[in-house]
Design goal:
heterodimer; A: about 350 residues; alpha/beta; eight-stranded mixed sheet; four-stranded antiparallel sheet; 13 helices; about 30% helix; disordered N terminus; B: about 350 residues; Rossmann fold; 13 strands; about 20% strand; globular; binds adenosine-5'-triphosphate; binds iron/sulfur cluster; binds magnesium ion
Chain lengths: ~350, ~350
């Protein structure tokens, strides 16, 4: 199967964006809580999360494994089983409340105005149906069109996501696609109804960097063409730096730092975010020792008192009294720095970053 | 046959002066059924098709390349979970490629594998003590009486609480489970560990903890590594040398700095240029990128001549007819390309 087109690689230059502030939010999450009652106790997976994303903007969500990135994003699409998850707070998409939406309304909403790309293409592509059939079905569920028109749309979408020879590929089964192509087919399916909100949950984690780059370009192109709001979940801060406008850093079910990407990655104020930066090996310069965050993530059955990060925080002795272990810090907007906020008791995080952290970064 | 010595205890034969590990023209062709109307015809997946690689004692070699290029298959060949369809796998000069399970036993001890997935590679019904203890017993490492203390010692080496030997894998976090897998590999006192994406499933802060652990094993115990990863930053951090694979072959191999600063194969250049870079937020000017078009061709029916030619922007007629050999183009840097040359300007953005 070699239907590749030999030819020049496209040389692209990614330019950091100019985040123009104060746009109207398309997705608005307010004090979201998601809890799972289990035999072992109540799992507090998301505890008071608030953020918003305007059209044409990308929010990256990063954070420790198990910090609630996927659980909160699934709530946005109403994907939790209400018999299993307790959800409170508010999630507004284009002004409509999702938290109490009826199952029937949710069905129309998902795959229409809002769509999700999952990490594992296997989980959303059915092995027994052709790729084309699955895209057509998704299209016809939201548009009253003939099969033929839907197929044309599927071919069009496959071409759009860079699958060579889409007219032939449309009739193939998922197993006939390579991993990268399956991921693209899934993106085609997510985008077939021009969603205004796209949530991508680690869409490139399983892929190598060349395929990852293709997918990132693709999402950026589609976002430009359709003007969508994008939420992008990833562990890779390099990816965040390249594609996101804003970033939300999560720890133990809450946001610990939130704001424009260049500010948060350039000068983070929360000790957890410092730990992340110090954990990434550099691509240039002399290899420096890594300074990972000690310890492991907390159990959500028994979230630590005070600041949930305190058992792993090297800076808690800089905070007076025993605030860190007893008093939960709020997510406080910075007066000096519009649009960013952090959740930590430290008085002078800027100075600590400049004098102690920055010199250790590559 | 070359002269070998047999150290009495380990049972591993050695050719004096031979490198620790050498792959020489190693091939692994899997038999499969074709698809659709070809269903009756047998096809061969050329997963690994002529790999040459040398690993010295205590050395770390990174293995990178596009998904499906044969990295894991190479790992399973080195650890002899697979028998190659051609070529030699020499361990200290002795070819182990076709040894029987009985002959292999002493070698299995010295060549260990750690897996990507810390979840599925540990038996959920066994305690950590049993998991590590079984490895000790399989390789006859300690007397029964000394087993527990050695298990605890190993747990300590990998940074786990030695008191936790009685716990089950599910009671540990992902990073801790990966440490258990490492402790199990260390039980046999290996000379070489093949690590197949050992940190890919971990998030960055835990990944850095495990990286530091591997780093100390190599500096303190002198263990050699074949280290497979997608993350080129991680590979650079850990490896002395790096081999880049494409569609079953090594296309470039060399010392770390040469490979990252002066990659000569077009595929290596594309790979490095695709790495997302956090530097842009700190004012490093955005770099130019080479975007590859299309997908890797199928290993069932690889292109003639140079296997990269269907995606190569430098391809000429000769690339379709003549398979480029892996030859030395700079000191210790070998490249398989008819038109190998370093890039005109640095591919990786330089931090000011
Ligand atoms: N159905 C459920 N019942 C109980 N706990 C759950 C359930 N679903 C998720 N959780 C828990 O909620 C927490 C948050 O999980 P989530 O999947 O959102 O993490 P994440 O941030 O996406 O992590 P990762 O980076 O590993 O994907 C985890 O501790 C998880 O075990
Ligand atoms: N037992 C097998 N039978 C048939 N084909 C196989 C078998 N094992 C692997 N392959 C094929 O061999 C090729 C190389 O696979 P391998 O797992 O070594 O790739 P990899 O480089 O490790 O990829 P990844 O980065 O995705 O882990 C793939 O095309 C794969 O589908
Ligand atoms: S509040 Fe205290 S424990 Fe929490 S991150 Fe800040 S300094 Fe560390
Ligand atoms: S041999 Fe030819 S096709 Fe292959 S990498 Fe070199 S220039 Fe490209
Ligand atoms: Mg997740
Ligand atoms: Mg693999």
């Amino acid at each position: 199967m070699s239907d590749q087109t030999p030819g020049a690689p496209t040389t692209v230059t990614r330019v950091p964006r100019d985040p123009s502030a104060n746009e109207e939010a398309y997705l608005e999450v307010n004090d979201l809580q998601v809890q799972f009652p289990t035999a072992d106790g109540l799992v507090r997976a998301v505890q008071g999360l608030s953020y918003s994303v305007p059209l044409r903007r990308t929010l990256a969500i990063v954070g420790e494994s198990g910090s609630g990135k996927s659980v909160s994003s699934m709530a946005v699409l109403g994907l939790h089983d209400r018999k299993v998850a307790r959800i409170t707070g508010s999630i507004k998409v284009g002004g409509r409340e999702v938290v109490n939406m009826s199952d029937k309304d949710l069905e129309g909403f998902r795959g229409g105005d809002a769509a999700m790309i999952f990490q594992d293409p296997q989980s959303s592509l059915h092995p027994y149906f052709t790729v084309g059939n699955q895209i057509m079905e998704s299209y016809r569920a939201h548009n009253n069109v003939s099969k033929r028109a839907a197929k044309e749309r599927a071919v069009d979408m496959l071409g759009r996501v860079g699958i060579p020879n889409p007219r032939r590929r449309v009739d193939q089964y998922p197993h006939e696609f390579s991993g990268g192509m399956r991921q693209r087919a899934m993106i085609a399916m997510a985008l077939v109804n021009d969603p205004k909100l796209l949530i991508a949950d680690e869409p490139t984690t399983a892929l190598d960097v060349t395929v990852q780059a293709q997918i990132l370009d693709l999402i950026a192109d589609l976002q430009r063409d359709f003007g969508s709001a994008v939420v992008f979940i990833t562990h890779d801060l390099g990816v965040v730096a390249e594609i996101a406008d804003d970033i939300l850093v999560m720890y133990a079910g809450t946001a610990v730092e939130h704001g424009p990407v260049n500010k948060i990655l350039g000068q983070p104020l929360h000790p957890y975010a410092w730990g992340l930066l110090e954990s990434i090996p550099a691509l240039t310069g002399d290899p420096q020792p890594l300074h990972p965050i000690p310890g492991s993530p907390p159990s959500l059955l028994a979230v630590p008192s005070g600041c949930p990060f305190h058992p792993r925080c090297e800076f808690k002795d800089r905070v007076p009294d025993d605030w860190c272990t007893t008093l939960r810090p709020d997510l406080i907007p910075r007066t000096a720095d519009l649009g960013r906020s952090s959740r930590c008791h430290l008085k002078d995080p800027d100075r600590i970053f400049e004098t102690e952290i920055l010199p250790r970064l590559p | 046959m070359t002269e070998t010595t047999t150290p009495a205890k380990s049972g591993v034969r050695t050719v004096p002066g031979a490198p620790l590990l050498e792959l020489d023209g190693v091939k692994m062709h899997f038999k499969t059924k074709g698809e659709g109307f070809l269903a009756r015809r047998t096809q061969w997946v050329q997963a690994v098709d002529g790999v040459d690689l040398t690993v010295g004692a205590g050395e770390t070699i990174g293995l990178v390349g596009e998904s499906g290029c044969g990295k894991s298959t190479t790992a399973r060949l080195i650890t002899r979970l697979l028998e190659p369809t051609a070529g030699e796998i020499r361990y200290q000069g002795v070819d182990i490629a076709h040894m029987s399970e009985r002959q292999l036993r002493p070698y299995r001890r010295e060549i260990q594998l750690i897996f990507q997935d810390p979840y599925s590679s540990l038996n959920p019904r066994h305690t950590v003590g049993t998991i590590v203890g079984t490895a000790l017993r399989t390789h006859g490492m300690v007397a029964k009486s000394g087993e527990l203390s050695r298990v605890q010692e190993l747990l300590e080496v990998v940074g786990l609480n030695p008191e936790h030997y009685n716990r089950y894998p599910h009671e540990f976090s992902g990073g801790q489970r990966q440490r258990i897998g490492i402790a199990r590999a260390l039980a046999a006192r290996p000379k070489i560990i093949v690590a197949d994406e050992p940190v890919s499933a971990l998030d960055v802060s835990i990944q850095a903890q495990v990286m530091n652990l591997l780093e100390s094993l190599r500096s303190e115990l002198g263990i050699a590594f074949v280290f497979i990863a997608h993350d080129l930053g991680v590979v650079r951090h850990f490896c002395d040398r790096v081999a880049v694979m494409y569609l079953g072959r090594v296309v470039e191999e060399g010392p770390r700095d040469a490979l990252y600063q002066k990659p000569q194969h077009p595929y290596t250049q594309a790979l490095l240029s695709a790495v997302p870079d956090i530097g842009v937020v700190r004012g490093v000017p955005p770099k130019n990128r080479i975007r590859l078009v299309g997908d890797v061709p199928s290993p069932v029916d690889p292109p003639s001549g140079c296997r990269f030619r269907t995606r190569c922007w430098k391809a000429q007629d000769i690339c379709a007819t003549e398979d480029p050999a892996l030859i030395e183009r700079a000191p210790a840097q070998r490249v398989a390309c008819h038109f190998a040359e370093p890039p005109a300007e640095s591919i990786l953005a330089e931090t000011a």
